[in-house]
Amino acid sequence: MKRRHFLRWGMGGLLLGNAGLAVAKAWVPDFSAIRLEATGLDAGHWALIAEVQEHLLPAEKHAPGAKQVNALVWLQWVLSDPSVETSTRRFFRRGADDLAALCQKEWQKNFSALSPDEKEELLRKFETRPDGHDWLRELLNYLMEAMLSDPVYGGNPDQIGWKWLEHKPGYKRPPADKRYFLL
Amino acid sequence: MTPDYDVCVIGSGAGGSPVALTLARAGYSVLVLERGPWLHTDDFYKDELACCLRDVYKPDRRDEPHIIELEDDDGGWKSQSTRNSRWNFWNGNCVGGASNFMSGYFHRLKPLDFRLLSEFGPIEGANMADWPIAYEDLEPYYARVESEVGVSGRVVSHPHAEPRSTSDFPHPPLQEHPVAGMLDEAGRKLGFHPFPTPRAILSRPVDERKSCAYNGGYCGSTGCSTGAKGSARVALLDKAVKTGRCEVRPHALVKRIISNRQGRITGVEYFDRKGALQQVDARIYVVACQAIETAKLLLRSAGPKYPLGLANRNGLVGKNLLFAGGGAGSGRLLYSKFSRDRAKELAQTGFFINRALQDWYVIDDKSFGPRQKGGTIDFVHVHPSPILRAQRQLESNGRLNWGKPLKRILEHQFRDGVPLKIEAFCDWLPVADSFVDLHPSYKDKWGMPVARVRAGFHLRNLQVGWYLAAKGAEMLKAIGAEGVISFASGAPPTNLLAGTCRFGENPETSVLDANCRAHELDNLYVTDGSFMPTGGSVPYTWTIYANAFRVADHLVGRLGGIRRENT
Fold this sequence. Notes:
The complex is a heterodimer.
Chain A: H1 3-7, H2 43-56, H3 71-79, H4 86-107, H5 116-127, H6 130-148, H7 160-164
Helix pairs in contact in A: 2-4, 3-6
Chain B: E1 5-10, H1 17-25, E2 30-33, H2 48-53, E3 67-71, E4 77-81, H3 116-120, H4 135-150, H5 178-190, E5 195-196, H6 232-242, E6 246-249, E7 253-259, E8 265-271, E9 277-280, E10 282-287, H7 291-300, E11 319-322, E12 325-334, H8 340-347, E13 355-357, E14 362-363, E15 372-373, E16 375-381, H9 386-391, E17 395-396, E18 399-400, H10 403-415, E19 417-426, E20 434-443, E21 449-455, H11 459-478, E22 482-488, E23 498-500, E24 524-526, H12 541-559
Parallel strand pairs in B: 1-2, 1-10, 2-6, 3-21, 10-24
Antiparallel strand pairs in B: 3-4, 5-13, 7-8, 8-9, 11-23, 12-19, 12-22, 13-16, 14-15, 16-19, 17-18, 20-21
Helix pairs in contact in B: 1-6, 1-12, 4-12
């Protein structure tokens, strides 16, 4: 047996410990207290991200979409955490700028003016760039957070994501005063 | 001058707490220093953000990273900081340590695990060694853990079952998921011997601890909300504190153990909650910070007589770091293959599968090679954490999944069947390229050197891991699971740590003596998993608990026995 053959599985071991996103645990405000300027992105960036999120997680009759799981506010909440590094905010901002630029170059119009098929084509093109791939992957990661975290944090309202996927929460669920940043 | 305490225990997890409880009960004053906060049962929730995505029970890796060295494809070593990576080598920094977050799959070592070198001979490229004690020395302490920590299960005879001094577990088995019965039947047909996995989880209330709430596999990574899980905090330290002779000091990060020109330890220096340095002294010092941190502490505690660090005259502190070797696998029981009623039963994921196989604890299979050490196979539910489960579906063959196709994938993953997992444990052979030392220049936020962890592995780990995982896969196929895969990985599981201060008779080839006392210091002991020269093919926690109780009994004897006024 060749060592290289095994190494292919490198990070895939199910015995691995937690491999979560490296985000800080300092106190962050509730959704109602988010200031856009604290996110490092402006209203234009957020409008584009909202459109992209809706494409990545479209609403369907029987299954929630990005808007219904509060995905946009979720990401704004994450980025307004004062302990999040400036480089993280820059990463999201730059990704939005790059996508907007690519959109102008390819279609000479704004992302919001594209048809669903055109959006798909553009995002698939963006995905072929390493930084585009990473940006979309992060948007998807946070979409999953917004959809499937405990509703006490503000995403997954009325357990809409849990209900859709028939997920049963464990005992006990965190009350508001025991959210992770208050421990 | 009278020391502040009889015993100072550094680290409040599975290695430190048995010492604290035993000594406090025997009438001695004990101080437990714990770097993390003191969270209580009421502070633990099934909160995926807390446990698994924001890592609130661990130090911030931006302040306190590890430098990891992994072998690259060309046989060189690639170094990376965990600062911004998916690797996290911290495990539960709070009172009770990582035992708060264990799954509690409890298996004992077997008699042959204490003498792998004599039993199977040397292995090229591995530093095999026999233990200086035998299974019989530890057996009474495994039994003590069963009652003191609370282990539930049912003894079933199988070819590699270890001898026991008691006929059965003190607590009946936990409630079982229907897959347990299916595995039993498949095992009978295949000629295998599945048995109920003992768990450090109460199946009925004991004192202030409630019984299990049956979350269906949420235990690992999350703290227990009922006190059923036998964490060192709830099962041992709470009792120690009640004696009135054990003080637990959270937010106390030990900077160094101080020694004088004569080589005697004069005290311990630690950062308090505000970051100010404090000192305390004791008659006996017990280090139990988990393998990596224990080695770091000894190495950074150099003194006039110990220029290489405490207990490190022979340079062995930090060497022979053990993770757990093994393989894994998965499969899925599709509801569509069962009647509606049966599917309903299967979808009820609250109860445990709790089945294990040790038929290949020794592999005597000519097609595989000479008779050799094998390991343990556990059958478990996939951890229910929904965000991580969903995030694993975001990419297929390097291409991102999104839109309606992603939603159909998620529906299939979450709703169409029971996802099952195989966890196979084999020895992580001790090798020269698996060690921890202090990084020469990289400092953490406290100004202390960060750990450099080289996680090299022996090819044998993978061969045995593949073998065991494939046997597990046979079982999954036999119960009708779809999409069954099995594999092994050389990636170090960061939650299963041992080695770095191996014990032995010979001071030239070991760090600790048979009582886990440092060969070169009269009053320094190490009682976490660091003492293990070889790790066995099971999770370590039960053995760490048992050995710490054994050392604690030795300490009581050394200090003069049980104090009369407490009997």
